[in-house]
Amino acid sequence: MYKDKDIEKLKDIEKVVFILCVGSRDSYHEYCSKICCTLAIKNAIEIKKTNPKASVIICYMDIRTYGKNEKYFKEARELGIRFIRGKPSSIASENGNLLIAIEDTLTQDFINIKADLVVLASAFIPAKDNKRLAKILGIELNKYGFFKRLYSKLRTVETKKLGVYVCGGATGIKDEEERIAESEAAVAKVIKMLKSLEEKKASARVNEKLCVGCEICAKVCPHNAIIMSNGKAKINELECKACGICLASCLYNAIELPLNNKEETFAYLEGLLKDTEIEKPIVNFVCYECGYSAIDMAGALGYTYPANILPVPLPCVGRLSVVEILKAIELGAEKVLITGCGEGGCHYLKGNEYAETQVKLANAILEEIGLGKKVESLYLFGYEAKRYVEKVRRMNDEQ
């Protein structure tokens, strides 16, 4: 607000009105600017300390001084700063003063306030150049225009591009402690990444003899790890996350994924289904992330589900091809369930979307040959154990 050299000007002010959430939490910027409540209250306290006789009013929608900042809210009230819950409908000039019209939504009173100074706590918005910079770096923006994090729970400083990390205000509004913590996390990720360059990664590989240069793998790779060179697909091992989405999309079996090829999945299915005594088995292809976490959580919470549910773990359900789904049916599975991360929460960005395409294709083939729809999907988050149990119980009861 005022610089130290201008602090004397505050001594002549008799009434100050702060208006919070100006440009935040509205149709233009839906998000909360998070730190403006605290900043406004701290400035209001400084005014009150500089001029104890001044009347200071804060107009707010909700006071969000979370964590340690709650002490400033308490101090402001103790100093006599007035809080009015409501957003002014107009600000007009009247005889050299400012006239603010507002409804106190707690008392439902309409109030006109005369003030010498009105301070607007305006929205914090992303930088104008974010879109251009994101394009240069090969990363994405979220719906508000900040840089998009790879995964908001567990990979908060990572992006879809290896070697590009984000922290602090780059991904949204943060207070001081959050900015410091994220900066340290980003540094730790950089150190880990640099050390990993010395290790050999289990990335996907292309068999050039089988590759026909159709470019499908390059188009579906969510990490942009595949390029076309001389009519053949080339995989950047540093960029590859080994999710297997490219493997599932390749119609010519030209892509291999160490420790997770289709042949290994076939062998896994044969081990589960061949000569099994389980009646009406249901094969459950499940991702290592949220899908398997939900199953683990179900066990930890003491939930029970039918013994004929046979989990088949995959790095990502996007790794699953229609061939493997149909193979499970061929080997005797009564039904197939695909369990992956919830909407917007896939650890490999679009794996659940590609998996759903395979589900629809498999059901179309099964209906065409007269077997009917036998494949279902469930996309959830790791804590949704109850949803998982309810789903598999229902599938079993419907057999």
Summarize the structure.
The chain has 399 residues and is an alpha/beta fold.
Layout of helices and strands:
Layout: E1 15-22, H1 36-50, E2 55-60, H2 70-78, E3 82-85, E4 90-94, E5 97-104, E6 109-115, E7 117-122, H3 130-137, H4 176-196, E8 205-206, H5 216-220, E9 226-229, E10 232-235, H6 245-249, E11 255-256, H7 262-273, E12 282-287, H8 290-300, E13 309-314, H9 322-330, E14 335-341, H10 351-368, E15 375-380, H11 385-397
Parallel strand pairs: 1-2, 1-7, 2-3, 12-13, 12-14, 14-15
Antiparallel strand pairs: 4-5, 5-6, 8-11, 9-10
Helix pairs in contact: 1-2, 8-11, 9-10
Q: Given the helix and strand composition, which structural class is it?
A: alpha/beta
Rg from Cα? 29 Å
Poorly predicted runs: none
Number of helices: 11
CATH architecture of the largest domain: 3-Layer(aba) Sandwich
CATH class of the largest domain: Alpha Beta
Global shape: elongated
- Please trace the helix and strand order, writing H or E for each element: EHEHEEEEEHHEHEEHEHEHEHEHEH
Number of domains: 4
Mean pLDDT: 93
Largest sheet, spatial ordering of strands: 3-2-1-7
For the largest beta-sheet, the strand count, sense and barrel status come to: 4 strands, parallel
